[in-house]
């Protein structure tokens, strides 16, 4: 496979380990099971090797999370994890060096890295702010590995994270959303759900369950629940049965359904719907 001049995106994330003692350096076998550093690790590894026993390992030398840089092609199916960093208490400042070192190595191998994508974690936002003189959240910066400065480097938020954020704002009782004088309310969705469950026969929204509408701290983090709520079927149900008051809510759901579809495909053909357009079914039911 010719990997020259590939156009890539660099994504990075921080994953917490189940136990703080999962990653460690085995002084007897010399096997590197884990370490904590995003910079020079020589001194830390040497101190671990010289420790008399495992119980004497300093807590700061044990990692509790894993930082991963993932490379993904924009116009190809090239996708692979580029580097792992077992780490502890990572900050945006510590992430800055390895981040640009990874980009530089990819550029030297003739990969054109156009940007990065990450979730809204505080360390990721801090990393982005470091590229602004006034520490603002910016969407692009100069790529120091492009000599003619014709290609900028862009920062993108992770689409699943944005989808969860939108759903959580919509469901929050402390937020009031309006558009053109009409309310965008979570209660409209609850009304449709309750009505479909109370009537006999076919269920209007079979994918929606109790957990979709009654969110907990855990369910707020699930992308599948957010995608099921902000979907075309929910938008059409609100349009058909929600009444005039729910029309702006239906439009709101439809916009973010299309937004997620645009960003959740690898090429132009992946987003093509294979089934008959649901709008034709809506017209049929309206005639009854």
TrEMBL record:
InterPro entries: TNP-like_GBD, TNP-like_RNaseH_N. It holds the Pfam family TNP-like_RNaseH_N. It comes from the Eukaryota. Residues 24-129 form the Transposable element P transposase-like RNase H domain. Coiled coil: none annotated. Residues 161-270 form the Transposable element P transposase-like GTP-binding insertion domain. This is Transposable element P transposase. It comes from Amphimedon queenslandica.
């Amino acid at each position: 496979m010719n990997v020259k001049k590939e156009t890539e995106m660099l994504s990075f994330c921080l994953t917490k380990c189940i136990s703080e003692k999962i990653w460690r350096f085995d002084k007897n076998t010399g096997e590197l099971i884990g370490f904590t550093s995003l910079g020079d690790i020589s001194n830390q590894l040497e101190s671990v090797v010289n420790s008399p026993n495992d119980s004497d390992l300093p807590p700061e030398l044990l990692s509790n999370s894993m930082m991963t840089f993932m490379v993904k092609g924009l116009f190809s199916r090239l996708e692979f994890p580029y580097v792992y960093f077992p780490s502890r208490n990572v900050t945006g400042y510590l992430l800055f060096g390895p981040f640009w070192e990874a980009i530089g190595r990819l550029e030297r191998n003739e990969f054109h890295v156009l940007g990065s994508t990450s979730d809204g974690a505080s360390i990721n936002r801090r990393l982005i702010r470091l590229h602004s003189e006034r520490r603002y959240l910016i969407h692009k910066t100069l790529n120091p590995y492009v000599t003619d400065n014709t290609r900028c480097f862009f920062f993108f938020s992770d689409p699943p994270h944005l989808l969860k954020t939108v759903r959580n704002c919509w469901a929050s009782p402390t937020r009031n959303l309006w558009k053109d004088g009409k309310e965008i309310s979570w209660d409209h969705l609850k009304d449709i759900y309750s009505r479909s469950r109370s009537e006999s026969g076919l269920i209007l929204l079979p994918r929606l369950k109790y957990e979709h509408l009654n969110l907990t701290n855990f369910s707020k983090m699930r992308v599948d629940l957010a995608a099921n709520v902000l979907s075309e079927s929910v938008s059409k149900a609100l349009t058909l049965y929600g009444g005039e008051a729910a029309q702006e809510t239906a439009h709101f759901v439809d916009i973010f359904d299309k937004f997620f579809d645009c960003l959740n495909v690898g090429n132009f053909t992946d987003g093509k719907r294979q089934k008959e357009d649901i709008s034709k079914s809506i017209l049929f039911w309206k005639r009854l």
